[in-house]
Write a structure and sequence with these properties.
Layout (H helix, E strand, L loop, with lengths): L3 H5 L14 H34 L4 H5 L3 H21 L1 H6 L5 H9 L5 H26 L1 H4 L16 H23 L8 H20 L5 H11 L6 H22 L35
Helix pairs in contact: 2-4, 2-7, 4-10, 6-7, 6-12, 7-11, 9-10, 9-12
Length: about 290
């Protein structure tokens, strides 16, 4: 009989022993993937700052041409959705798995699809890459533009509805995104479309939800903007709500489809790039449980 931890897949820690990666071994073997994760979130933040300047800075002709804030959010949402899609399908996204988010990495660690030290270095790389991306955007675009009060380094803050609505919104968004990713990426017949679904959902989220919480779903993304802006209002929301929502989504997925259907933690695995994870994607590609 399976144990309770084996049945849920979330409670058991990552296995230890001779096969486990030490910090030095993980860094020596997988540093390219760590750098790719850093670069991926860095590029995402550069795009976020650039499009926020273009659409929200009062001196921008695009801002003046689009006076309706809903329309501007829609344009930003489409731009950021396309940015996410481009990163996921880029050579580095195919290789690193394109987590770009500590909450995503933590969820896959709890699903036992990534080694502990790989998860640690992924999270460190995500925080570093996001912060460097905002710094680079401010240097290239100009601190006067990126730091303008209407842009403010693209910070994520609770809206007028308050912190608890923002918390609920962030948790709900994270739940929806992770549940979608798990259901699409773990079906070999659909895996290649994971990035398209995720990008489309991000576009919708930014358009509809941004006034409630700023639409972060990502602790590293929030910190990247908060550091130069020095705005830490209710930052705890963005550290607690996204991981909680994604872990709940993972548990929901396990209850409905089972631990055996979690094949890997790459968003896009239908490619020839190397995989550093606890991967069963190709082994189970023809298993009936993975079919639509």
């Amino acid at each position: 009989m399976k144990s309770a931890t084996a049945a849920t897949g979330l409670a058991a820690p990552v296995e230890s022993g001779p096969a486990a990666h030490s910090a030095v071994r993980a860094l020596a073997s997988h540093w390219p993937e760590y750098l790719m994760e850093a670069a991926g979130l860095g590029l995402f933040m550069i795009s976020a700052c650039a499009f926020t300047v273009l659409l929200e800075h009062p001196g921008s002709p695009f801002h003046q041409a689009l006076p309706d804030p809903w329309v501007r959010r829609f344009v930003i949402g489409v731009a950021m959705g396309l940015t996410a899609i481009a990163i996921i399908y880029s050579p580095m996204g195919k290789r690193s798995g394109a987590h770009l988010n500590p909450a995503v990495t933590l969820t896959f660690l709890c699903l036992r699809k990534i080694e502990t030290w790989d998860a640690v270095f992924y999270v460190l790389a995500q925080f570093a890459g996001g912060a460097l991306g905002v710094m680079l955007a401010a240097h290239v675009l100009g601190a006067m533009l990126v730091g303008h009060t209407a842009v403010n380094y693209a910070v994520t803050l609770p809206g007028e509805s308050g912190r608890w609505i923002a918390f609920a919104a962030e948790m709900s968004l994270a739940f929806g995104l992770m549940l979608l990713v798990l259901n699409i990426s773990n079906r070999p017949s659909l895996n290649r479309y994971t990035g398209l679904f995720a990008g489309a959902l991000i576009a919708v989220y930014i358009t509809v939800e941004a006034p409630l919480s700023g639409m972060s779903m990502n602790p590293a993304r929030t910190v990247a903007s908060a550091l130069p802006a020095q705005v830490w209002t209710d930052v705890w929301i963005y550290f607690v709500a996204p991981p909680l929502g994604m872990l709940l989504a993972a548990q929901t997925y396990l209850l409905t489809r089972g631990q055996g259907t979690v094949l890997c933690c790459k968003l896009h695995h239908d490619n020839t790039s190397r995989c550093i994870f606890r991967c069963r994607y190709h082994e189970c590609a023809d298993h009936p449980a993975t079919r639509v």
